[in-house]
Amino acid sequence: MPTTERLNPLSIELDPYNPRLSAEEEGSSQAQLIKIMIERFKIEELAASIIESGYLPFDPLVGYRDNDSVVVREGNRRIAVLKLLLEPSLAPARSQSRWRELSEALSDEDRAQIQGVDIQVYDDRNNIDLSTYLGFRHVTGPLKWPALEKAGFIAELVQQGWDYRRIGNRIGSYARHVERHYVAFQVVQQATALEIPGADIMSQRFGVLLRALQTPGIRNFLGMEYPDDPEQSREPVPPEREQEFQEFVRWTFGSDGLGPVVTDSRQLSDWGNILESAEAVAYLRRSSRPTFERAWFKSGGQARSIVDSLFLAADHLQEVVPLVSELTDNEDVKAGFRECARFFRQVLAYFPQIGEDYGLKVDD
């Protein structure tokens, strides 16, 4: 169980392994973390709120003990703001004047209040209750992190030896959802380690990657599986598929100044079909600026689209047939049927044998 301690925010350290930090930012110094908070986490808005309404400790601050220090795990933005309001000189040089203004706008009463805040302190960073609390709150709970941050937190638990079911049970999720996040996170890590161009863009569009890897055709192209075993997913893409890995990143997310072939996440299912087509993949490889539409045509996608449209039209006509006999005098019904007949006649011209099968003939 944690202990509740009342501490000056200046004595509380920011978390250098906050899941919301990028891989390059992890392990940063306290001064660097302050700079990151100012530049990326919009903490000035939170400072303005505290100045306007006072510090309202509705959500608990949660941290862990690291030797003689207390490091915050839940509430990094709040602690960073309180530090800067109490000591504006902690800000980078170019931001100090702005934080000095904010600090001077703080009332004496509010300044006295924030010099001591309650924080729940666990014995260490990997305390199971602390990990469970953060997982429920930010992976499945009311204050969800973006997909990449969720996956990073899951990867941290895997590194501690947790399996997917245990993580799912603790944070209120399904094991298969946990695995999908972990595998996608490892794909980003693997692409970064291999220095694949576009890996950074893929990381920024992690939600698209997560959905892409649920498409069987894409996984087949990459030689990937979901083996229900974190150890087998440390490097999800096998070494013999490194070329396909590079191509997938370039075509799906863009790289080296080239835009992606996939321009809309709604195309991902069709993208899986394209990557399963040898003819379409050959086109993508030989073209300097391939297009999704051309690749879709090469994969036979146009034929599938026509088939889907024809069967949809047949379904609608099947619904109409039992009802139309009662509406033969309705002018709108006549007009609708006339349009169907017009287009049917045009299509039938390409399939005369089918017309003959049904006693229909289209004159030249």
Commentary on this structure:
- This protein is α/β, with parallel strands linked by helices.
- It has 3 domains: 3-125, no CATH class; 147-299, no CATH class; 308-357, no CATH class.
- It is built from 19 helices and 5 strands.
- It has a 5-stranded mixed sheet with strand order 1-5-3-4-2, with no helix packed on it.
- Helix 15 packs antiparallel against helix 16.
- The chain is elongated, with a radius of gyration of 29 Å.
- The mean pLDDT is 89.
Kindly summarize this structure in a few lines:
With 364 residues, the chain is an alpha/beta fold. The chain has helices spanning 30-40, 43-53, 76-86, 96-105, 108-114, 128-140, 147-159, 164-171, 175-193, 199-204, 206-212, 216-222, 242-253, 268-275, 278-286, 292-298, 301-324, 331-348, 352-357, and strands at 3-7, 12-13, 61-66, 69-74, 117-122.
What labels would you give this structure?
364 residues, five-stranded mixed β-sheet, 3 domains, alpha/beta
Task: Note the topology.
Elements: E1 3-7, E2 12-13, H1 30-40, H2 43-53, E3 61-66, E4 69-74, H3 76-86, H4 96-105, H5 108-114, E5 117-122, H6 128-140, H7 147-159, H8 164-171, H9 175-193, H10 199-204, H11 206-212, H12 216-222, H13 242-253, H14 268-275, H15 278-286, H16 292-298, H17 301-324, H18 331-348, H19 352-357
Parallel strand pairs: 2-4, 3-5
Antiparallel strand pairs: 1-5, 3-4
